Every structure is written in C-alpha cells, then in structure tokens.
C-alpha cells in the first residue's frame, strides 16, 4: 500500500520560497500521478499542481503558474513542489495525493481521494 507524507512547510515572508516534499513508501511512485493540494483556513481543498512521473507531464493551477515548480526524484521516491514568489494567499495546509489511473490533463476534485496525510503548513507573513 502506498503511503505518502508531506514535509517542508514553514513561515516565510512575502516573496520568499519553500520547497515541499511528498515522500512515498510501500510502492514506487514511477507509475503514479502525484497531486499537490492546498487548503486555506475556512476553505476547501484545491489542486495546486500535478506530476505524472511516467512521462513527466505536469500542470499547475493558474494562481501558481510561473511561481511553483513540481518535480520528481525517483531514487528518493519523492515529489517536490518548489514554491517561489510566495504570497499571503498561498497560505494553507499542503497535501499530496497519488493515483495510478489519472493524468494531469484536468483538475481533480479533492473528494476523489480518501487517503490523506497530515499535510505541511505554509504561512506567508511579514
């Protein structure tokens, strides 16, 4: 069974950067599509980015395009979300999820997934 856990969150000033990691155990991520979601306080969970490791295809929410970069580290069985130019509206709990059957061609609702880790908190404040 695939288990995922997130790390790398923290408090940064506006314009700062963070690198989040989604680490996996139990199975290799090579055959998976990995999604990053975030949930701001009082709001629903929204998809931020997607990476299909088999072919490297990826996608981003419009709100983070040009600032966030998702990449895979197959030897470490990890997917990284490098966030730059952080804004207060980027604040929230960031989660990752994975699925073998999905692609990055369209947004996936968070309700599709039923197995979530604890997330990692991102705070952006001066």
Rg, Å, rounded: 13 Å
| Average pLDDT level | 95
Order of helices and strands: EEEEEEEEEE
pLDDT below 50 for ≥5 consecutive residues: which ranges?
A: none
Residues in helices, as a percent range:
under 10%
**Main beta sheet: strand number and arrangement?**
6 strands, mixed
Structural shape: globular
Estimate the strand proportion.
over 45%
Distance between the termini: 41 Å
Category by helix and strand content: mainly beta
Arrangement of strands in the largest sheet: 2-10-9-4-5-6
> Total number of β-strand segments?
10
TL;DR?
With 126 residues, the chain is mostly beta strands. The protein has strands at residues 3-7, 10-12, 18-25, 33-39, 45-52, 57-60, 68-73, 78-83, 92-99, 120-124. Strand 4 and strand 5 (45-52) form a beta hairpin.
Structure description:
By secondary structure, this protein is mainly β. It is 0% helix and 48% strand. The chain has a six-stranded mixed sheet, with no helix packed on it. It has a four-stranded antiparallel sheet with strand order 1-3-8-7, with no helix packed on it. The chain is globular, with a radius of gyration of 13 Å. The model has no long low-confidence stretch (mean pLDDT 95).
Search tags:
126 residues; mainly beta; four-stranded antiparallel sheet; 48% strand
